[in-house]
C-alpha cells in the first residue's frame, strides 16, 4: 500500500519541481505530467549502445531501477505497513540503494568516456560521505524510540512528547539535504547545466537511451518520493484516520517538491571541492541530534 | 617425551570451523596453483619445494587448530609461518619479492615473540602448558594484568591478522606471492590470528570492557586505513591486500564489540558480535579467494598488476570478470551477497550498543557504526574503481597483449573451476544465514562460559530471526531484478537497436588514453584522506630559462603512512645501531679465529667464576 502511494507521488514529484522553478523564473512552465510523458516517449524508443561497452552497461539501469523499487518497499507510510520490514531494515534500505549505485557507477565506467568516469567518481565519493549522516540520523531516532525498524521507529516517534517535533524538524532538514545529494540536485549538483564537466549524476547517463533511460528517469523520480516519504513519516505518526494520513502524505510530498524547486531556483551550485564539507556538516548535524537524544 | 604427551588433541567446535574453512580453501588453492604455475614447468623452478612448503603450512595450521596445548600451538604456528614464508618467496630471484618475504618473516616472528611471552607468563605461574591451566593462571591476575596479558596476545595475533599498526608486511607480501598463495594467505592464514584472539579471549574474567574498547578502536582504524589505501591503490594485488586489512578490521570490530558487551554482562550482544566476526571471517575468506584467483587470471594473461594499463578485460575474459564482479559486490558488503549479512549483524550490534548507559561507550558505538558506513561507501568506491578500470571500457595500453594462449588457458581450465566452486558456498550463506549462525553460536557457547539467561537466549533468537528476514528481503530484491529484466527484454524486442561510438560530448577524436584513470577516480578521496596517503612526487619543474621545455615524466610513489611513520624509523634505528659494530666484520679469517678463541676463553672464565 505504501509502495503504491510512493509510486503515485513519484509520478508528479519532478513535475512539481519543474513547475515551481518555472514560476519562480516568471514562466508558465510545462504541465506537471511532462516528466511522465517523457518517460513514455523514451519507452517507445530504440537504443544505441556504445561499441566500447559490454553487458554491464545493458544490465546496469535495470538493476539500478530494481534497487530503488525494493528501497520503496522498505519504507512505510504512517500505519500503512511496508512490504519488507524487520529490525534494522533502514540499513538494508541504505545498502540496497548502494547496490543500485554500484551498478550505475560501473555502467558509466563501461562506456570508456572520460566525462562519465568523472561523474561516477564524484557519485561514489559523495554517497560515501552521506552514509554516516544517514546512519547516525536514523540510529538516533532508533535510540529515542528503542526500535530499529522504520515501521516501529515512526510509529512510536510521536510518543516522546514535544521534543519529538523539534527533532523531527532537524531530521526533516537533514533528510531533505540527503535527498538532494542522493538525487544530485542543486546545492551539490546541477542537472540542467550546459557543461558536462560540472555535473555528477546527469553525466553518468550520457550514453543511455530508450528504455534504459526511461528506467533511470523513473528511478530518480521514485528516489525523490522515497526520501520525502521518510520526511512524511516523521510527522504523520500521531494521525490515525486514513483519509487524514493520505492528505498529509500528499501535502508533505507537495511541500517537499516545492522546497526542492525553490532551492533550485534561488541557490547556486557549490564548488565541487566544497561539496565534501557541506556533506560533512550534515553528519555533524545528525551527531548533534544524537547528543540531543542521549 | 614429556613434550609429546603434552599434546592434547581435542578439537573444539571453533577449531572445526577453522579446519573446514582452511582445508576447503587450501584444496582450491592447490587446484588453482597447478594451473597458475603451469608456465613455470619449463623453467628450472623447483615446484616440489613450493608444494611441500605449502603442505607444511597446512599441517601447521591443522596442528594449531586442533591442539589444546600452548607448546604445540606454538609449534603449529611456527610451521605455518615458515611454510607460508617459503611459499611467498617463490620468485626469490627478484629482489623485491625476497625483500617482501623477509619483511613478512621478521614481522611474523615479532608476533611469535609476543605470543610466546604471553604463554611463558602462564607457564611461569602454573608450570604447565595445556590450555586447562589458563583459568588457574587468570585467577592469580589483577584486572590490569589480565588486560596486559590479553593485549600481548592481541598484538601478537594482530601481526598475523594484519591489524594496524602491525599490518605493514601485508601490502608487500601479497603482491610478491603467487596468486594462489596470496589467496590462501589472505583467505585463511591471516584468519589464524582471528582464531587466536577468540580462543584465548575466552579465558578472561575481568577487564573485558577495557580490552574491548582498545580492540574496537584499533579495528575501526584498521578498517578505515585499509580501505582508503585500497581505494587509492594502483597495483591490483596491493589493493586486495589493503582490502584484507579493512576486512580484518571489520572482523575485529565484531570481537571488540563482543568483549565490551561481555564486560557489561550483555550475553546476547556478545554472541551477536562474535557471530558477526566469525561469519565475516567466512565471507571474507570466500570472496577474497575469488578475487585473488580472478585477479591472478588477469595477471597470467597480461603480465601486469598495474590497473592503469588495463581496461576492457571483461570482453576478453568474461568468466574471470563475472566472478570478480560477484566477489567485489560481496566483499563490499552490498546485498545480495553474504558480506552484507555479516556487516548487517555488526550494524545491529552497534545499534544495540548505542543504548549503553555509559555515555562514552555509547558515543564509541555511534562513531563505530558511522565509520562502518564510511568504510562501506569507500569500499564501494574502491571496487567500482578496481572492477571498472580493469574490466570495463577499452584497453588503456597497447603494449598489453592479453596473451592468447595464456588467456585461453586461464579462462577454460583449472584456473576458473576453483572460483566457480566457491559460488555454492556464497549462495548457501545468503540463503541460510540462520543455519550458519546457529552452528557458530554453538561453537562460541562451547568455549565462552557466559551466563545464558532466558533474556539472552531470546535476544540471540531475535538476531537470528533478523537474518532470515534479510535473506527474504534479498530474495525480493533478486525477484524484482529478474522481473524488471524480463519486462525490459519484452519492451526491447520490438525496438530498433544500434551501435555507435561513445558520445564524446562533441569531441570528435577520442582515443583510449582519454578514459578516466583509476588514480583520477580516487583522486578526491586521496585528497581528503591525504594524511593517510603520503606520496613522493618525482618531477623536475620547468625552469624559467627553458624556452622549449624538454620531455618530462612525472612519477608518484605512494607509501604506507604507518610503515613510514613507525616501522621504518625503528628498523632504521636498529640498522644504524648495528652498523657501529661493522668494524668487527672485516673479512680477515685470522680475526674471526681470534673472536672464536676469545669467546671460548670468556666461556671458560665464566664457568670458573660462577
Overview of the molecule:
The complex is a heterodimer of chains A (294) and B (610). Chain A is mainly α and 294 residues long. Chain A contains eleven helices and one strand. The two termini of chain A are 34 Å apart. With 610 residues, chain B is an all-alpha fold. Helices cover 72% and strands 2% of the residues of chain B. Chain B contains 25 helices and three strands. Chain B has helices spanning 2-5, 13-36, 47-66, 70-88, 95-126, 134-139, 143-161, 170-176, 179-189, 191-201, 208-232, 236-263, 267-302, 313-316, 318-331, 338-353, 359-391, 404-412, 417-431, 433-447, 454-493, 518-521, 523-528, 561-579, 589-609; strands spanning 497-500, 535-538, 555-558. A two-stranded antiparallel sheet of chain B has the order 2-3. In chain B, helix 7 (143-161) packs antiparallel against helix 10 (191-201), helix 8 packs antiparallel against helix 9 (179-189) and helix 16 (338-353) packs antiparallel against helix 17 (359-391). The mean pLDDT of chain B is 87. At the A-B interface, strand 1, helix 3, helix 4, helix 5 and helix 9 of A face helix 16, helix 17, helix 21, strand 1 and helix 23 of B.
Any key phrases for this structure?
heterodimer; A: 294 residues; mainly alpha; 1% strand; globular; B: 610 residues; 72% helix
